[in-house]
Amino acid sequence: MDGMALKFPSFKFLNPNTSTIRSPPLLRKFSSSSSSLPVSASGTTLREAGPASNSVSLGQLTRPDFPILHQKINNGSNLVYLDNAATSQKPISVLKALQDYYESYNSNVHRGIHYLSAKATEKYEQAREKIAAFINAEESREIVFTRNATEAINLVAYTWGFANLKSGDEVLLTTAEHHSAIVPWQFVAQKTGAVLKFVNLNEDEVPDVLQLKEMISSKTKLVVVHHISNALASSLPIEDIVHWAHAVEAKVLVDACQSVPHMPVDVRDLDADFLVASSHKMCGPTGVGFLYGKSDILSTMPPFLGGGEMISDVFLDHSTYAEPPSRLVKLFTC
């Protein structure tokens, strides 16, 4: 490859305030001259994290916390992992938390009154409260645990979607959405007669926000958009989109898988009706995700997966159901 120059794309972000393109911010670095050196979860201080220099990146500082990176590959080279937008690696604190559960209080959640079940239930609900606080939800019952963001979107599609969409109603998406955000609504459209409409990319190869605004009409019942795209590096003005959608009484579902791990996300500021994210993209375990939904909307949605603690009473010919979030999806341990 002598004489050939490798070219990399210059990613840019959409400025939500001006609908123009801006360059992504530079990563902040820690100064080694600081009197108080940061310490990673493994106890590594800034100066221990890498070779002597005037500054060290957050990546260098936290690398010791990720055991999977402590291996040699390809004839002794250090492993370099650059696919975090797809799945992030897990720090030792997460691995220890998982080990602690299986060693100390492995038990069904909400399904027993003995010591282990009570402790597992307490930890489970504490996790729900932490997520609610992390995204500034009004209450923890607005957080529904799922296996991933895909299941969270399917939950909305099969409960709210089938209950509220009818022939001629429109679901507005962009052509840049993840397959998991498109396919469930194709199923719903096929069964209800609803119409899927797609916003194209503009000349900067990011979703055309102005076209999106123009396409919202009285027929629009739902807008499904990503917050940040890991493919295009586009950042959409969710507050504006929500404002336009709510003006015609349409709901908004936000795919926040790429934004929640990397930037402050305040669901009350965004005012979105639904928001989904996955644990595995933010240093958490694989097989865990969540749906945020406004409590007044969740309370109107029928159950998604039957069984377990989602029920209130079961009779031979019918069942009654618990309040959200329990009634929307069966727990994984049951």
UniProtKB/TrEMBL annotation:
Pfam families: Aminotran_5 (PF00266). Its EC number is 2.8.1.7. The keyword Cytoplasm does not apply. One of its GO terms (molecular function) is cysteine desulfurase activity. The keyword Transferase applies. CDD domains: SufS_like (cd06453). Keywords: Pyridoxal phosphate, Transferase. Residues 80-328 form the Aminotransferase class V domain. InterPro entries: Aminotrans_V_dom, Cys_dSase_SufS, PyrdxlP-dep_Trfase, PyrdxlP-dep_Trfase_major. Signal peptide: none annotated. Its cofactor is pyridoxal 5'-phosphate. It catalyses: (sulfur carrier)-H + L-cysteine = (sulfur carrier)-SH + L-alanine. GO terms for biological process: cysteine metabolic process. This is cysteine desulfurase. It comes from Populus deltoides (Eastern poplar).
